[in-house]
Amino acid sequence: MKQKQLEYLVGGFVLLGLAAVLYLTVKLGAGSLLGSDSYRVEVRFSSASGLNVGGSVHVAGVPVGRVEAIRVDPKDYSAIVTVSVLAGLKLPTDSMASIKTTGLIGDKYILLSPGADETYLAAGDRITLTESSVDLEGLIGKMAFGSLEKDETKEPAPVP
């Protein structure tokens, strides 16, 4: 009889452990552990190239939120990024948002630089002071092909 009780106890413990792992997986996947309170703000970029849903949002190098959605505004074809930010973080209305890269070719994230205004962003407000990411491939291509074009158009030095 004691053997069966021990087996039931171990089985219950294993099920409890699996339930805890499942709970943490769902919460971490959703980006909210233990029901953290947040509010949503929209950010308008001319290009959100490389930014993904689920990406992180940082202030002063500290993660304070995540990217919830990315869509195109049909009026001016700009990228509208919806981010959720911790409720305890009050961002001034003149805050700036930039798309940055972790490392040389790492993941993209949004860096929020708080402004100095005395009024704060509310849920649903939009940040329009933005800086899109640098297109590294295009920049390297311009440097490579730009230097080739300069060499081809150079005239040979006159021979005395």
Describe the protein's architecture and organization:
Helix content is 29%, strand content 29%. The protein folds into two domains: 1-35; 36-134, Elongation Factor Tu (Ef-tu), domain 3. It is of the alpha/beta class and 160 residues long. An eight-stranded mixed sheet has the order 7-1-4-3-2-6-5-8, with no helix packed on it. It has two helices and eight strands; from the N terminus they run αββββββββα.
Biggest sheet character: 8 strands, mixed
Q: Tally the helices: what do you get?
A: 2
Structural domain count: 2
Q: Could you say which structural class the secondary elements and strand pairing correspond to?
A: alpha/beta
Indicate the percent of residues in helices.
25-40%
- The CATH architecture name of the largest domain reads Beta Barrel
Point out poorly predicted stretches. Answer: none
